[in-house]
Amino acid sequence: MSQPVSYRIQDGVAVAWLHNPPVNAFSAHLRAALRDALQQVATDNAAAGLVIAAEGGSFIAGADIKEFARPPVPPITRDLVCAIEACPKPVVAAIQGTALGAGLEVALGCDARLLGPGARLGLPETRLGIIPGAGGTQRTPRLTGPAAALELIASAEALTPERAASLGLGEIVRGDLLQAAIARVHALATGGRPSRMADMPGRMAEPGARQAFEAAAEKLAKRAAEEPQIAALIHALRNAFTMTLDEGLRAERELFEPLRTDPRSVALRHVFFAERAATRVPELSRDVKPRPVERVAVIGAGTMGTGIAMAFAQAGLPVMLIETSAEALARGQDRIASLHQASVRRGSLDAGTARSREALIRGATDLGAAAEADLAIEAVFEELPLKQEVFAALDRVMKPGSLMASNTSYLDIDAMATATSRPQDVLGLHFFSPANVMKLLEVVRTKHTAGDALATALALARRLGKVPVVARAAWGFIGNRMLAQRSQQADRLLQDGASPEQIDAAMRSFGFRMGPLAVSDLSGLDVSWRMRKASGKSLPVADALCEAGRFGQKSGAGYYAYPEGARHGVPDPAAAAVIEAVAARFGRVRRDVGEQEMVERLLYPTINEGARILEEGVAIRPGDIDIAWLHGYGFPAWRGGPMHFADATGLSRIAARLDAMAAEQDDASLQPSPLLRRLAAKGSGFSSLSV
Ligand code: 3H9
Question: Where do the 3-hydroxyacyl-CoA dehydrogenase C-terminal domain residues begin and end (predicted)?
């Protein structure tokens, strides 16, 4: 079946089978073929009406997102949905997989929507920075009521058949979906069709609908101020109270078009494809099968180890948590229990689920307990000899073919691998704190890591609900290596006269939820201080704060002060005094630093390091770097990640600013990397490198 739509008569009804692998995106050729099927059925004496159906996991996954970069190609979906509505014969959607975005909009044009058990219905357009553009904002509220429509579209979530049916979006079919759809066509053809949606206000006219809608809109006021698609969505839905369907569709289109071309939507679409591309390693054939992982051991029950154990238990995998002493193990288990209790208190977890997750985590004080595991992850102190010892011990006890992983953030995983007799089974799985929450998983391959070991890690990431990014073993991998540049510039900015509040405010107004110094205070300044000391590196202000015992929130003071009961840090004259003393020591002339300078200094050297990472092959593609920053470091998704942001800014501008910074700071390492310089000279961008 290679035609996008195959038109077949079955039991007196035409069935249009959609076929546009892998997910039935509603591409131009599929739209044209469906239009032809509609025209054919209208005059086909053998057909009482039409069923639209698809095999596999997707009915229609939505508009073809790749087409958004170009002007729309007719037939456009909005017109096609109107053509379905205007078809002289009944049309029924038989939905057995995902009907998302334009997919649901097509179904909304049908006389009925029958839902199989695997149906998932949603309008996720807002996640791409747009609103539904083919009637979703007008037809949905007529069926569900406007408040429910707003919640559905703003959440971008996909609904189960039960939930969709309870909202009025479709009817659940228990038996044979196609037979039920065919029977429904006959029933509609003989028994009369419901009035066209265009002719009825539906649930928009229910008493209290307006009030409920305005209350739901009020709850979204903050998002509406920040995200243009949410403001447009509220506008479009509000139109449905007063406009006819045709007027509402025209207004929806007017709201849709500028969103489609807005750089924020361009960035969010980049993120969509980059997330998917990041799960692929070019030289790893799709035929390589992951190894089975049914049992996991986590070595070290500190903050990271317990978080990692929780992440596995959350995915239903049994974990053996191993510590050196009963006391340390008990501390780790208490920590897990109290984190679960806090979630239960907040209402984000029910007590039964918390208990079953805890039951999946058993404890031991002997590395021999890792013997049965298919995968062991060490999260012990960041000391190479200690880690090498752990790897050598795991090598002795673990069964052949099991994987051994390190959660190190910086250390040499090749050196850990060679401490074992099976370096092909060793890799890095770098989780981000809190490991059970943060989505990023840096998967680090060494020179020796086997292809199927890598494939196992990628499959495992999916099972854990993480977004994997593959890196080669090299200091700091992708994220932390770039972060070091930002930290260095933040330190220098403080010396030059910027305050911690100003630096954090500049990054917040760029779009980060938290500023970098507030984040440092939250995660603790002492860990990186110890690491700097061990490697002979220095960040003068950060070092001086640590020397003064200011380790961040946990010690009550860092870049900010944290008085008892304060939820956020407050500006602290004592921190300012430390900063001024460091500046004086280095003979810095302190001045007012503008926001633009702060943003450029914090981001451009970071991007430059990203370019080096690409040049050295540490990251496979620029999009991987973007994904790492989005899911591990809070880079705003609507900016698309640092490398996409760089392309949008223009690499020649960035190169020129880096040259100027290198001169101003008398630091040749700030000069543009050869790759950045080359691309800038060609007027090209990082995206030209994508594989
Ligand atoms: C819309 O509909 C706007 C309308 O209102 C307006 C009309 C005017 N387009 O995710 P997967 C590719 S906006 C193009 O790994 P899964 C994807 O890139 C759209 N390509 O599979 C990947 O390719 P590759 C609203 C798409 O099983 C492959 O398919 N719809 C599209 O984990 C497999 O994808 C959405 O936002 C697309 N729409 O998940 C839904 N969708 O193999 C977006 C997928 O080369 N899609 N691809 O990497 C999804 O949420 C998930 O893909 C889905 C399947 C749940 C369907």
Answer: 476-562, 599-683
